[in-house]
Each structure stands twice: as C-alpha cells, then as structure tokens.
Amino acid sequence: MVHAPDVPAEEARLEAKARLEAEFPGWSFTYIDRGRWWQWWAIRGPLNGETLGASGLSDTNPEGIAHQIREVTRGQ
Fold first, then answer.
1. pTM (two decimals)
2. Quick one: CA dihedral 48, 53, 54, 58, positive or negative?
3. Is residue 34 exposed (0-12), middle (13-18) or buried (19+ Cβ within 10 Å)?
C-alpha cells in the first residue's frame, strides 16, 4: 500500500467506485483504508495463466485504476 496524506471522504469513494463499475463491467473494485495507508484495487476473474498478470491492479486513486484497466484491455 502507498502512504497518501489526503484520504478521500466516504461519499467521494462511493461515487468513484460507482463510476468505475459503470465504465468497467466485469471488474470488481474495492478500497482499503488502514488509517494513513490506503489503496484502490481492481480485480477481474476468472484468474488463469493468461489473465493473471492483468487481473489484479492497484493504485492510490480511481483515475489511476481506470488508466491501468484501459491499458490492459486495449485491443480486447
């Protein structure tokens, strides 16, 4: 996880999660908050040898997750 000083408010996290879910069906999103350490995660399944590397992504913000998903799904 990455240290991030400005933890987003719960309402902002829920809005961001809803936007991600609408844009990326088939992906699951979660936000982990450990006090001063927090992280966004995106996961899709089923996991297998071909998709394992692109099945779990993490970033400190929803825009970073969206960018990573676009990169790994380009051409699919």
1. 0.69
2. positive
3. exposed
